[in-house]
Amino acid sequence: MSAHLMSLHRCCQRSALLLVARRPWSSSSVSSPPPLHTRLLLYLTQRFYDVEMLLRWKSQLKRRKIQKKNVYYSYTQRFHGAYIAAAYYILSIKGGFRYVDQTDWFRPNQRGKFSWDFMNHKDTHLEEVDMSYTVINYSGLQNLEGQRSLRTLSLRGCSEVDDWFLARLHMFQDSLEELDISHCPRITTGGLAALRNLKGLRRLDISSLPGISTPGLIIILLEEMLPLCQITANGYDHNLRPEEGEEKKHTQAQR
């Protein structure tokens, strides 16, 4: 029996026991029922495990959906080439891209539908890729491997981009010039250190990263690692020490 069936079986058994436990209140005519707040707390307690199981299922289904969207398109790459496979992956997760020496962008519409004209560019390199607010993750990045002409990559607001993802960006160290990782909630200071491999970067946007505790210090370190790069860091209180912000708040509260 699978894990999901076992969980459902335990849930049904628990619900049956709870119905039996409530029966004396409904059938007894001698003792009065407990107060309303007591009944409410007991009801919530009885439903806690059912809700917890449903939330766990929802989380598992979400993770499986993300993994499915980031599957490695080895079959497409083998029969149509790396550029077609990369283009198809980008469009399938609602990203966009532009080919070298072209002005038009390939993007899906609001319903996720896209033109298949990219199939006519089997040997054309990708120059700009916009994956903003998509579910690209570490596994899906493998589909972009081999894009030696990629100059611009936007990952703005990508919820699955983390430190491991940034460490894998070294595959673009010979071509990448512009990188936007702003508003990515899972990036920390350790991940930013991996950007030292991207010596060709000219523009880097690290605005509004909630995992950064000392943005002022991080910006200084990034400027030392990437001296030719223009760094954008909006949405921070640029302190060198995290305690400075806390002391400032404490002083304002005393006033």
UniProtKB/TrEMBL annotation:
It holds the Pfam family LRR_6. It comes from the Eukaryota. Belongs to the ATP synthase subunit s family. Interacts with incompletely assembled mitochondrial NADH:ubiquinone oxidoreductase complex (complex I). Required for the assembly of the mitochondrial NADH:ubiquinone oxidoreductase complex (complex I). Involved in the assembly of the distal region of complex I. This is Distal membrane-arm assembly complex protein 2. It comes from Seriola lalandi dorsalis.
